Amino acid sequence: MTSSSTRVALVTGANKGIGRAVARQLGALGMCVYLGARNESRGQAAERELCAEGLDARFVRLDVTDESSVALAAKRIDEEAGRLDVLVNNAGTGGPPTPPSQTSTDQVRRTFETNVFGVVTVTNAVLPLLRRSPSGRIVNVSSLLGSLAYAAERTDPTGLFPPGVFPVVLDYNTSKAALNAVTITYANELRDTGILVNAVSPGFVATDINEHRGILTPEQGARIPVLLATLGDDGPTATFVSEDGTATGLRLAW
Ligand SMILES: NC(=O)c1ccc[n+]([C@@H]2O[C@H](COP(=O)([O-])OP(=O)(O)OC[C@H]3O[C@@H](n4cnc5c(N)ncnc54)[C@H](OP(=O)(O)O)[C@@H]3O)[C@@H](O)[C@H]2O)c1
Known about the structure:
Elements: E1 8-11, H1 17-28, E2 32-37, H2 40-52, E3 56-61, H3 67-81, E4 86-89, H4 105-130, E5 137-141, H5 148-153, H6 170-189, E6 196-201, H7 218-221, H8 223-229, E7 240-242, E8 250-251
Parallel strand pairs: 1-2, 1-4, 2-3, 4-5, 5-6, 6-7
Antiparallel strand pairs: 7-8
């Protein structure tokens, strides 16, 4: 059981990378954190690691593309905690970074299953629990590469890519653009509930997804997701915020 004053969070894809760092930072703030992971041994290893740091971290098996595992995870959180205060939709994937002409439809479909449809599945499954929170927060881990505005202009306000250069990756970029649209749509439905829904670009973070070519550590990449997961009740909804080294992050165009 969880004390009624303890805030409760669920992070998907929390067994490694940015997700594990977000879980660690939310746990360090005193939250009870459910670590969603699709693989039992990887999830349990993350749970052991965070519990050894004194955090209340609880592995829950959750494959965002498997509705029954998502439903079971939501049921367990309901039984143990009775509500959810923070949902971080972090689990994400992408195929080899290929341009549209060299990308199969199957690859696009697989990436959308996780990055877009998985977010809808998880969000809808736990929304009844979030509605019981006095201050629910949903954070969708997107990417600068999902911005239509910057892609069309081939500009990067974070300075990672030089002017005129913007990666052309069909499955990943379009899935994150769709995730941004999903973010705005939920934010608008939930405007009167107190649940704030925002998207983040964590920066270029060294993780398995980019073969550790990123320039930030996962702990640094977790900073903006955690900031949006802990917004005050007067905080924004339907925004897209990137790590840029400043205290509040950089508000991105969609
Ligand atoms: N790294 C960056 O520079 C960067 C930049 C912008 C956005 N992002 C976004 O940040 C998020 C986290 O990525 P990361 O960089 O931390 O990469 P990562 O280390 O590869 O972590 C991805 C996580 O997602 C999980 N996952 C993938 N498919 C899943 C599924 N169907 N169900 C449940 N979990 C699943 C993975 O689990 P397994 O271990 O089982 O595979 C892993 O825990 C992603 O949404 C990514 O698009 C990353």
